[in-house]
Amino acid sequence: MPARDFSAVYDEHVWRVYGFFAYRVRNRADAEDLTQKTFERALRSWSRYDPARAAVATWLLVIARNLLVDHFRADRSARQQTIDDLDDGHDALVGRTDQPDLGLEPDLELALASLGEREREIIALRFGGNLTGPEIAEATDLSLANVQQILSRSLRRMRSMIEETEAIRDQALDGGVEP
After folding, report:
1. What is the sign, positive or negative, of the torsion defined by CA atoms of 125, 129, 132, 137?
2. Ranges of H-type helices in 2-55
3. Rounded distance, CA 60 to CA 63, Å?
4. Among 9-13, 62-66, 104-108, 119-123, whose mean pLDDT is lowest?
5. Would you say 118 and 150 are in contact if contact means Cβ atoms under 8 Å apart?
6. What span, in angstroms and rounded, lies between the C-alpha atoms of 67 and 31?
7. What are 71-108's pLDDT values in tens digits?
8. What is the mean pLDDT of residues 117-130?
9. Which of 28, 36, 44, 67 is deepest in the core (most CB within 10 A)?
10. What value, to the nearest 5°, has the Cα angle with vertex 116 and ends 161 and 62?
11. Longest dimension (CA), the chain
C-alpha cells in the first residue's frame, strides 16, 4: 500500500493511539513518544498489513500494546539500576514527576489507578483507543464475554471510586475545610 495511504491512516488514528497511551502512562511526553514509535513501527510494517486479518485500528493498537509492554519493562529495569550506574542525565534523576499531566480529570486518574493492569488495559483500549468489544477481544485474545465482563466490573468500580471521592469532597466543603 502506498505511503500516502498510510498518511490518511495516521490522520484518522493518531488520537486513538494517543488516547490509549494517555490511559496507560503517567505523563504526556511518554504518551507522545510511544504514539510516535507506534506509527514509526507501523510505517515500517505497512507493506505487510493485511486488512483481512484485522482492522487498521486493531492492528495499530496491538502494535501500541507491544510497545507499552517494552516501555514498562525498560522502565522497571532502569529503576533496578544502582545509583552508581546512572549518569547525571538519566531521567530517573532529573525532570521526572509522579504527577500525571495528561489532562485527565483527577478523579478519573484516581479511579484508573485503583484498577489492576488488565482492567486498565481494557479501559484504555475501549475509551482511549476507541475500540469496540469485538476489536478488544481480537487485540487481547480474550473472549468477547470476558472483555464485556471486565469492562462492566471496571466501570462499576471506577464509578464507585469517583462517587466516594465526590462525597468526601462535598463533606469537606460543607464543613468549610478544603479536601
Report:
1. negative
2. 3-22, 28-45
3. 5
4. 104-108
5. yes
6. 11
7. 988 866 555 444 454 444 444 433 444 554 556 678 88
8. 92
9. 67
10. 120
11. 63
